[in-house]
Amino acid sequence: MIEAKNLNLFYSDFHALKDVNLNVAEKSVTALIGPSGCGKSTFLRTFNRMNDLITGVRIEGEVIVNDQNIYQKGIDVDQLRKSVGMVFQKPNPFAKSIFENVAYGMRVNGISNEKIIKETVEQSLIQSALWDEVKDSLKKSAYALSGGQQQRLCIARALAVQPSILLMDEPASALDPISTAKIEELIHELKKNYTIMIVTHNMQQAARVSDFTAFFYMGTLVEFNETKIIFTNPTKQQTQNYVTGRFG
Amino acid sequence: MTHLEEELKALKTEVSKMFALVHSQIEKSFYALQHFDKDIAHQIISTEKRVNGLELKIDLDCENYFALYNPVAVDLRYVLAVLKINSNLERVGDIAEGIARFIIESDAPFSKELIEHTHTNKMFDVSLKMLDDVEDAFNAEDTSLARTLFKQDAVLDEINFKASKLIAELIRSDIETTEQALHLLSIIRKLERVGDQSKNIAEEIIFYIEAKVVKHSRKL
Fold this sequence. Notes:
The structure holds two protein chains of two kinds.
Chain A: E1 2-11, E2 14-24, E3 29-33, H1 40-45, E4 57-65, E5 68-69, H2 77-83, E6 84-87, H3 98-108, H4 114-127, H5 131-134, H6 147-160, E7 165-169, H7 177-190, E8 195-199, H8 203-209, E9 212-217, E10 220-226, H9 227-232, H10 237-243
Parallel strand pairs in A: 3-8, 3-9, 6-7, 7-8
Antiparallel strand pairs in A: 1-2, 1-4, 4-5, 9-10
Helix pairs in contact in A: 3-4, 3-6, 4-6, 6-7
Chain B: H1 3-35, H2 38-69, H3 73-105, H4 112-117, H5 120-140, H6 143-173, H7 178-210
Helix pairs in contact in B: 1-2, 1-3, 1-5, 2-3, 3-7, 5-6, 5-7, 6-7
């Protein structure tokens, strides 16, 4: 179960998320859309407590991941961030080889069996649709890859520690159209095994890749429904105004 | 195959189901006429609900495809064509239902000689062949085959054009045949429209594959 219950988030005095209640369907893609500053990235980051790193953040309410409120005392945040992986807008490979980028998460978590590491690296690169392009050059620097390849490497890196959820914050906005199409196709494959939440400013992308869409405005969840409903017959006028480009 | 291509393939599968359904309806209406089978005629009327239901589903699938995938170029033309083909096929379904109702309303079997003499059987044969050919053209994306529909439609047009005079002569020669002859005239008119619908579908196939608009044009 993945759920936000009566979630409120404050950046000092600024009320960034207001009474958000949302049940995320497992093994599906949920897109978070809305104008800049509406709280969608903030909401995304609540699921792996990345907002904790921001000074002055305060949370009220609950975020349930795998049947646990991740904001209760005693939660191992490092373990949480293993099971809830994240991919950012700008690809951020480490200054290491392709192989070591993907292996890194396993090594810092105490896995030292090289056979297991090698198999997991291969599996992760296959899952992120990068294996065929890099299998003969795993020792090369990750920086030698193109932007689109680097982003798929970052996805493989997240997958290597076997998350159940993947958070993607505008994963294709820095990429060219062909790389974007590859990432979108990859998301379509990954959702068979992972729960994915994606923030995107590109509404057509949200329509193409997601099963469910949540529309945020000024910290409020305005509407949440199946993507085809949001884009054919949304319930709220505000949602219709946004998806038709009348504002935002 | 990308998931967008899978969605297009799924749409094609639904249209194929629609082709099969309405073809079967017209075939059954021919059988019901030849054998004066009112049970089959009732079946056609009850199956019409499935035709209508499938039309609504395909319309919705097209709407969703436009909304979610913003198709362009050949994909855009394809979904536009499917919307129209769907509507054409639904009308063929209506025509089969109309023929079935004539059979149900008739008190006596239709004379085989009358069916043949009025060329009603030929109208059925040609319109069923046109449905077969246009379905094959759609599935194989074959615009050459699609273009053959125009000549076939001309056969139906000719029989239809001569039908009033022919049936008037038959009635004059035997007043007892009036009711049946007039029903057959109506059926001929309906089958001529099946030809028109099939021709329209052929035009949409040419549009989506070649980006050429041939409707209302003498040039193919």
